[in-house]
Request: fold
Amino acid sequence: EKWISNMIRRTRVEEQLTDDLKEFGSCLTRVTRKWRFRVVARLGCGDLVGGSSDMVCSTAWNRDGDLIATAGISKRLCIYEVASVMQLGNAVHCPAMELSTSSKLSSISFNPYVKPVMASATYDGAMQIWDVQKGIETMRLKNHTKRVWSTEFSPIDPTRLLSASDDSTTRVWSITQKRECMVINDPNQANICSVNSSRMDSNLIAVGSADHKVHVYDLRNAVKPTLTLETHKKAVSYVKWMGNELVSASTDSLLRLWDVKGPRGVCLRTYTGHVNEKNFVGLSVTSDGRIACGSEDNTVRMYAKFAPLPVAGHSFMRMTPGCGLREGGPTAGLCGGIKPVLTNDKGAFVTSVAWSPDGQRLLASNSRGNLKIFELD
Reply:
């Protein structure tokens, strides 16, 4: 019996090592491969048509990846059909549907199960549920007293909606009961910038706050955090679950990868190479370890899970004629690339990034109202 027990234990260890080696090999391939963002479509292009500068604050893909949505300070929620956008390529696009709101929009989220359902959050603290197929508002939730920075449907429970606000609360809503089920107060009464629900455990959520901390809560007992992560030096603007690990972004220009399985939480890796000192620049992750974020130098950066520096990047910047560079070309900090010479884009920055459900495309927006869809080569 002892021999059998030892053999079983050995087999389990070998299987775990095999899985770990496979993951490492996959990530090593991503790190050493020469990646390039290829633009397959442009939307908005505010700088190019009439000088519009309506900032896009949030972007999202729907469940099947055949619709994308944008929202921002224009008080409009725009829905685009991906097939039409891809067919027209770099042409200027009109949305398939446009929904108006009474306040500026800060965050949007598609329901991962019920395809037409979408949630939006506003600067005045209200949240709206939409049926984008019919083009109507179906519900309004208005318990927050200040701006809602982040809203998200649970990836496991289609009836659960989360929100994070400047009123120092994270709220859990039921869209079937049309009311909030739980209010989580920040331990330090700090503004809440971001909330994200685990894809592995429906009871786990992570919250990023202005007090430089990430709090992890178990919704079965959310009186206090089960875990607090404290190495960022400025406000935590985004948190995203990546399997059983957590990625956080802060205005200290750092991303951090956390192991949150233990009782204390361990920072596994720190990512540098983008600029983020005061704005929301976006964060999106894939299940296989690709991390995308924006930057205040108007570029999109991609990291691989095991690499602390960007493995790919793309610039929204417009180049000075004759400088020998092209839009989307090499940028500072990427493989020793040179810094582009700018013309009219001083102060522009990336505001949002979102991977498609299959992880094959990336949607990004900037503060000039321009949007691009990328594929990786």
